[in-house]
Specification:
The protein has eleven helices and 16 strands. It is an alpha/beta fold. The structure holds 5-S-methyl-1-O-phosphono-5-thio-D-ribulose.
Length: 364
């Protein structure tokens, strides 16, 4: 592994990070996730437009991680702006719009940009260095709070994992998708740390293969038993009674408890209900969008044809033939047995709503 080189310990709290800020070089540092697991390389970014491009291109991905990357992108712009409060506000606005368009489904992106915008409004009339310092402190707070939230939801979810369970997860909701530690993988890590004898089946997660490339890599490094299956094998293992518990992350949770997550998650939830297996979700409260009434209102990203039609240079679908690529799907609340957040747990399938968590308070 190419060591992460920073002037201070990474906020992820781990030997690798999806995203960090180099305070000396004034650069956003990202692990190039498109190369994993074959190569471990970090990329450095010097302005918000480059950060936005990296988010769209999936150098960094995962709902909380792209929010943190955008927050750090705004810090870069704050550092570069030496003009008056008006110039600062205009620059923040332009960069926020650019970053906000990078990916549409994960609400954590818009949430982080809005929080940075409130900070920018508070400090716009301060001296340039003070403004930039305040923006950096806010971005770091978002990052630290995310790691802390992952640990709290991890403990909550881990308590629900049966001893000896085989756990199915989909996509990558690990340290690579968050500030550190992970949401769904936070639950798995915490269960392992509690001494529960667990093993994991990781859906490979076509077409982007986050499960095959990222989830198995993360769990293997922690010494947690993991096997990768193709997405189409999940039904086979459910039918054989080999899956005891499902946990996934989320990109947006609507007010009625509907959950958007990586394409294929809904399949897992339907199978879990058919086979009487708990289907659970771990996500920070920043993933809850109380302004969004239901799953049908969640914008679903459609990505390019070639991510389905090719793997690297290998052509799977002949040129000229169309492919569809919705990157996320929505699991209706009635199929979601439990959602773990840093503010507590709700049971959407039993009619409990995310609004209950809003009143639990805590954080911005
Ligand atoms: O397209 P991606 O890789 O950004 O999709 C990621 C997911 O769907 C994750 O499950 C979700 O963002 C939760 S990450 C803690």
């Amino acid at each position: 592994m190419t060591a992460l080189s920073l002037p201070r310990p990474p906020l992820s709290g781990a030997s690798y990070s999806a995203v960090e800020f180099d305070t000396v070089a004034a650069q956003v540092v990202m692990l190039e996730q498109r190369l994993l697991p074959a190569r471990i390389e970090y990329r450095r970014y010097e302005d918000a437009a480059a950060v936005a491009e990296a988010i769209t291109a999936m150098v960094v991905r995962g709902a909380p991680a792209i929010g943190i990357a955008a927050a750090y992108g705004l810090v870069l712009e704050a550092l570069h702006e030496r003009g008056d409060g008006g110039a600062f506000a205009a620059r923040m606005e332009t960069a926020s719009v650019r970053l906000g368009r990078a990916r549409p489904t994960a609400v954590n992106l818009a949430w982080a940009i809005a929080r940075m915008g409130r900070c920018a409004a508070r400090v716009a009339d301060s001296a340039p260095d003070a403004r930039a310092a305040a923006m950096l402190a806010e971005a770091e707070a978002i990052h630290r709070e995310d790691v802390e939230a992952c640990r709290r939801m991890g403990e909550l979810g881990a308590a629900r994992v049966p001893q000896g369970a085989t756990i199915l997860t989909h996509c990558n909701a690990g340290a690579l998708a968050t500030g550190g530690y992970g949401t769904a993988l936070g639950v798995i890590r915490a269960a392992h740390a509690m001494g529960k004898q667990i093993r994991v089946l990781a859906d490979e997660t076509r077409p982007y293969l986050q499960g095959a490339r990222l989830t198995s890599w993360e769990l293997n490094q922690d010494g947690i038993e993991v096997e990768v299956i193709t997405d189409s094998m999940a039904a086979f293992f459910f039918a054989r009674g080999e899956i005891d518990f499902c946990v996934v992350g989320s990109d947006r949770i609507a007010r009625n408890g509907d959950v958007a997550n990586k394409i294929g998650t809904y399949n897992v939830a339907v199978l879990a209900r058919e086979h009487g297996v708990p289907f659970t979700v771990a996500a920070p409260f920043s993933t809850v969008d109380l302004a969004c009434p239901d799953g049908a209102s969640i914008p679903i990203e459609e990505r390019g044809r070639d991510e389905v039609a090719r793997i690297g240079d290998t052509v799977l679908v002949a040129d000229g033939i169309g492919c569809r690529h919705p990157a996320f799907d929505v699991t209706p609340a009635r199929l979601v047995d439990e959602i773990y957040t840093e503010r507590g747990m709700i049971r959407p399938a039993k009619g409990e709503l995310p609004t209950q968590l809003a009143s639990a308070g805590g954080g911005e």
